[in-house]
# Entry
Amino acid sequence: MSDKTINHKLRDIQDKNADVELLQAAIGRQSITGNEANFVEQLREVMTANGLKPNTADFLPGRPNIWGHRKGTEPGPSLMIVGHTDTVNVQGWSNAWEGQPREDPFGAIEVDGEIWGRGACDLKAGICASLAALRLLDAADIKLRGQISFAFIGDEESGEPGMGVSAGAKDLVQRVKQGEIATPDFAIYVEPTKLNVYTAQIGFFIADVKVTGKSAYFGTPQDGVDALKATHKILTALWRHEEELTAGPSHDFVGPSGILVTDIKGGGYIAVPGECALSVIRKLRPGEDLDQAVAQFENAVNSAELSDEISVEIKYPAGRDHPLGGSPVEIDPNHDAARLLATCVQQEHAQGGQIGGAPYWSEAPFLVNAIGCPTVYCAPGDISVAHTFNERVNVEEYLAAVRSFALFMVAYCGTETGEEE
Ligand SMILES: [Zn+2]
# Structure
């Protein structure tokens, strides 16, 4: 069957109401990091109905991942769709929309052609679009070769205390390495990209810096050691480091590296400030080494020429695929499957289907580096409204994603012999 025939057929038979209802039900399942099970329960039903024979297992007590697959009767490439089930919290959402239809962050209400709610774009639209795509192929009686699999994992978002360390992704990697889940040939991680195809992603580390001097009464400042003045020197050194980084090499898709001071707290008494704390986040370009970036950062701090009476303690609280942070990653922007996916999207959503890079960190490095599977980000939704009170996804874009993913499944896996014309 020609591509054109498939396009028309899929457009004709897509059950748009059912696809939208699937997403609305998913948003209705509150799954703030820690509460993934509530959404996994719904996914189990949907995946079972899709013939994916899902498995679940806790990556931490009461917090399950879910995965499942379907094999064609003929051999062919294997494709995996991956996404995180958790969302950030909703503090302040209801206040922001008080008295308005979108007051309930889990109401999934449609306003002006967009579905609103926590998780709408980050990333339940991606998960639902991929599952609806398989359902659409079934409705069209198109049988895939090879294998299609789905893995939905928890603990990606870092908003909740002590959580968001990619415990779900680590569990998935373990099961792939042990052979319990087959290594896919290619994966799509459904972070929002406005249906562009991101072959690259930044890396990051967060550093908490504690500067300790000695407090003293304001009338006798000579008895103290001023931690705020020392911090001033550290800040100057860090902003010099920032200038070097931003003036340095730039990546085609994600731009130059950078470092940002995000928080500072110090003093507070009418006295010599004895302590000061600051937090920074460093952005890494693909190709940069995380250990090396940390060493550069520590060199910058050490270049501040502080007195011996000042002590500096640095902690890296946000280890992900690397103990100190999240690695940057990229695959060849001309990777065949990435190009093919971009082409499929362009047929259904003219504004999407561009190859690009993610200005955010998510869990593709686990797939690319830990299990050696080329991975892209691609899904409906705009990352700039994720984690905000404006989180929403455009309905037409979401419906186009369902068809785009279905086209890609056909183009990538191929169809069984009886299906070809
Ligand atoms: Zn996300």
About this structure: The chain has a mean pLDDT of 96.
